[in-house]
Amino acid sequence: MSTTFELPAELTIYGALETREALLAWVTEQTAKSHRTLQVSASQVEEVDGSGLQLLAALTNMDLNWQLVQSSAIFSEACRTLGLTDWLRDAKPPQDGSPA
Question: What confidence score (pLDDT) does residue 1 get?
Fold first, then answer.
């Protein structure tokens, strides 16, 4: 069973290196366990920029199957602005009921 990777509240260039390292370590751990679709949550994201979105684009470029399972309104808006709406296909709003 796959565990979900929770993106940080600040998904920006200022934390990109730390987030990248955590994300890659998680990917390595998850792919060693199984070849299931990786689940990523952006429910806690309050601030996002292009660098943050590039981290997720890298998963796609690595030919990894992943899906966004939850998305904050801020993250969803950034994806729509940049034409990344495919990422939002399976994403649900955060459990607190905030619209995505």
Answer: 46
pTM, full prediction: 0.86
**Cβ-proximal residues to 19 (8 Å cutoff; 6+ apart), any chain:** 7, 8, 11, 52, 55
Residue linked to tokens 């390595």 = 28
Kindly state the DSSP code that residue 9 receives in the 8-state scheme: S
Inter-residue long-range contacts of 25-32, CB under 8 Å, 24+ positions, other chains counted: 27/59, 27/62, 27/64, 30/2, 30/3, 31/64
List pLDDT tens digits, range 26-41.
Answer: 999 999 988 889 999 9
DSSP assignment letter at 99: -
Side-by-side strand order, sheet with 38-42: 4-6, 38-42, 66-71
Measured CA to CA, the distance from residue 14 to residue 98 in angstroms comes to: 26
Structural domains for the chain: 4-88 (3.30.750)
